[in-house]
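Hi R.,

Here are the chain sequences for the assembly we discussed:
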Amino acid sequence: MARYFWLIPLLPGASAFVLLLFGRRLARRWVAWQASAAVFLSFALTLAALARLTSAGGGAAPLSKTLLPWIASGAFSASVAFTFDELAAVMAVVVTGVGFLIHVYSTAYMADDRAYARYFAFLNLFTFFMLVLVMASDIVLMFVGWEGVGLCSYLLIGFWFDRPAASKAGMKAFLVNRVGDAAFIIGILILLANVGSSSFAAINAAPGSGLLGPGLVTLIAILLFVGATGKSAQIPLYVWLPDAMEGPTPVSALIHAATMVTAGVYMVCRLSGLYTASPAAASVVAWVGAVTAVYAATMALVQHDIKRVLAYSTISQIGYMFVGCGVGAYAAGMFHLLTHAFFKSLLFLAAGSVIHALGGEQDMRRMGGLRKRLPVTFPVFLVGALAISGIPFLSGFFSKDAILTGAFAGGHYAVYALGLAAAVMTAFYMFRLVYVTFYGSERTSLAPGAHIHESPRAMTVPLVILAVLSALAGLIGLPVLFGERANVFGRFLESSFAAAAHHLAPATEIVLILAATASALLGLGLAFLLYRRSPGIPARLAGRFPGIYKLLLGKYYVDEAYDAVIVRPLVRGAEAVYENFDLKVVDGALNGSASAASGAGRGLNVLQSGLVRDYALAFLLGAIIFVGFLLL
Amino acid sequence: MIPPAAFFVLAVVLFVLGIVAFFVKKDLLTQFMAVEVMLNAGNLAVLALAKASGRPDGQAVVLFIITVAAAEAVIGLAIIVLIFRQRKSIRTDDLRDLKG
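And here is the predicted structure of the full complex:
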């Protein structure tokens, strides 16, 4: 079965094709079944291929298959070829596994939507492009997937396009990503021009073989990373992700938490050869990640929209993953990507369940006391919150600790300190969310008689599965402390990365683990104090420091700044071009030539009198001139 | 023996008469006849040249031209008759459908 691994992306692609063409004529049940089954089959194939990879006890050759040649231009060539190695396996498991659960969840969440088939077509299409991105053998095909997921993200953010905010958010996401992708394309082109081959193997080997000088490696790595900051919502291009929450909640879970936004991390890991060869680029990655982790977490502290808190949290957590990549702990970055996919999609889906129960309410100030009303959603949300906060022995604890340990071991102490600060804030804003939403008094604006109900089974079962994964997934990546062979995940990915992990003395590692645990508990305790014990404090704090509070609530006014510095001058410039060039030069030239032609016609049509004699006279004159020429 | 120049003079006179008649007259039938006169003026010139050169092939060509002209006259006259049936007029000034 594993040799059909190349069908993994194609199955959801085929399903999307059918749904796009015939979806409106198919029954809803059929649409739901087909879309979910396609992703489930991909998941089964992924597991089979993964079993093949691990069966040889590690060191098995990656599966690869060339489907068709694509570009052949002189010495350069690119083909549609898929490779399934360890790194791709991790991502493919996330995309198909979490993706399948989200498909199932969506069948119930979107049950009342008019455009059911369109939704599942886009979701399948996204899965297809994401798997192309993950399994591409060369960077050109990866870029196809990269752009494809961007397109699907745009389509799904703007899914409810009759809401102006949603279509605006979709456009914002697309345009902000264009900025990053411009740098990404330039990076790819420089890479192709110098390496001459587009395959990842050749690119990763290029710095070592002297094809790329150190300066060039740094330039390319940073250009590619700028692309990653767009796709993965890092400073300075993160602004689209909070707005992307206008899309349906399962979309936020799949695309804007678990898979697409982590594509940047995956890209950096895939090209670890470049980032290892350029310490400068690697430290840019680490610093951007660390600063983003703290910066986004501060904004999550004060937001009132339940999905926006999670969005800023996602930005912050992806910052962690980049820290892992930047300090050379690629496996730790990928590990956090995996665990984050579980607990963040869990949190989003559980938040979706809350929103569903309250009939579309997203403002936490109008929630409260839902603990008893939602007997399944509450415990699974709690598991997700504990996991992301880094409470010991849940998945987030191990992955976050692996990254922080990596930063400390690599000597990046400032980055480590930022990571620790972000960890405190993470625990704080997550438990603020838990306390405000599930504890306290009920503050819903629903009619008193309205029954707040738990979601249907199709939604709660995926939640429970994700909760179990969020709790236990950490056990595959235990710290070295638990023995040399405890980190199954790290050993699995060992051959994928150019960098070897640093090792620390066991005593140091224990101190680091205790520090991480302490910061998580500190955040949790603060949240308990402020939002459970004495709920008056937050308002007093906001009153005491109105400047800081407004700055955070206003999201540092970055949107406004971008608007003033970039968007409005561009719009004004475009209007000036429209008025002066389009209207005057382009339209003027067109209208001018048209009126010149019709004027000439009007002038010349006196010749066409319709009188036989006039024509005969012209004929006679012509004949006389002709004969005159012959005779003279 | 009539000198060849006389034939040419006659041909030119006939041709000019044809042109004048074509421009002076306003009904299609007469203008058609004027064109026929011009054609036969041309025929006469060819005949005169053929006779002067002493070769018979020029005269043969003229016989052909007369035959073809007869056929052409039939079609031309038929067209004029049809126009008259449709328009009840063969005045060329009334037939101005091609005016731009």
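Strands of chain A lie at 63-73, 76-84. Chain A has a mean pLDDT of 90.

Let me know if anything looks off.

Best,
T.
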